[in-house]
Amino acid sequence: MYSELQKIIKEHNEMMRSSIPLIASENITSTLVRKCYLSDFGHRYAEGKVGERYYAGCKFIDEVEKMAIDLTKKLFDAEHVNVQPISGVVANLAAFFALTEPEDIIFSISVPCGGHISHDKMSAAGYRGLKVVYYPFDVEEMNIDVDATKKLAKDVKPNLFVLGSSLILRHQPVREIKEIAENLDAYVMFDASHVLGLIAGRVYRNPMKEGADVLTSSTHKTFFGPQRGLILSKKELAKRIDKAVFPGVVSNHHLHSLAGYVVATMEMLEFGEAYAKQVVRNARRLAEKLYDLGYKVLGEKFGFTETHQIAIDVRDLGGGDRVARRLEEVGIIVNKNLMPWDSVDIAQNPSGIRIGVQEVTRLGMKEEEMERIAEFMDMALKDRKDLKEIRKEVKEFRKDFQTVKYSFEESDAYEIC
Length: 417
Prior knowledge:
This protein has two domains: 22-28 and 273-398, Aspartate Aminotransferase, domain 1 (Alpha-Beta Complex), CATH 3.90.1150.10; 31-265, Type I PLP-dependent aspartate aminotransferase-like (Major domain) (Aspartate Aminotransferase, domain 2), CATH 3.40.640.10. 43% of the residues lie in helices and 14% in strands. It is built from 15 helices and 17 strands. It has helices at residues 2-17, 31-37, 59-76, 88-99, 124-127, 146-156, 174-183, 196-200, 207-210, 238-249, 255-292, 320-329, 358-362, 367-381, 387-398, and strands at residues 20-21, 48-49, 52-53, 80-82, 105-108, 131-134, 137-138, 143-144, 160-163, 187-191, 214-218, 229-233, 296-297, 309-313, 332-333, 335-337, 352-356. The protein has a seven-stranded mixed sheet with strand order 4-12-11-10-9-5-6, sandwiched between helices. It has a four-stranded antiparallel sheet with strand order 13-14-17-16. Helix 3 packs parallel to helix 11 (255-292). The chain is globular and about 60 Å long. The model has no long low-confidence stretch (mean pLDDT 96).
């Protein structure tokens, strides 16, 4: 059985090494981050705060967690940091416990308009017992309609405004929402899971500086880290946040990946700005090329994207499921995605696909490679060449991009056993 498992892992790795990964919620870590996974930290527990543990043997673990907190504060100029959530959803759940009571009303972006499921009644928000009201959404702008939100909020009187999205093409109106929230004595929370690395790289506005009371996030999308979460908050909310995390929704917090997060934060401090700028340049160039090839890329009026993401309406190509499966045949990995006009009932084959360029950017690809990727996609989707031939070309193309860039080791090979 073990040999079969190793065979499966090897086949997966070989597939990914020869493919073009464009899933907007994924990235790859450097060798130094991955080495931390193999440390003895992976066997240990450290419940409680730094210096106030419920287990002995945490002296060096405390040092690592303090490093994580201090580096995060420096990177984001944050008043308070909690690095113990083990995922972005866990961070969101902790924030809901800290900022709300059951039956409270929250505003969030609907899933078809890009909102994450954890902001909705079907997931974390619902399990907290919150009543979810959706923001009015401007499809042309792919953003929240602030004026309509202001009017609706006067009637509904929400206790919490949740911002941040899974499909996020724009800077969101944090300052404007904060003004509405202040008049209602409500909080503003921003889920930065998708744009954390862009915030660190100074190409996406820092929501905490725009007025958000709390920022939640995962650490592995545009950020360079392993899969875990974090919460930034204003200092007056520190005790409530910390209590909601532990003993609220986290016990031990996966110390091997915490050590990896420290390395990733160091890398972001060193390379984040150059990386983030290239990510946005790549996303725009890919969007432009696909648009020029005749695809219905959302957001022409604002330059298609201000982040790492692109959204494409593919209804005339059979829908998102068909398109994603066809691209997978040639080694281009994207995800089907609901569009604002969709019902959640058609999630199995929604109108669109979502593309993210953060991982290929970290592999060293730039604008020229974005054009090649668009051409590969076009060949596959318009039957311009046999799919097996396109797959061979994708494999050959990918051979030149096997090294993780924006890391401390120039020969940082993308290699995992």
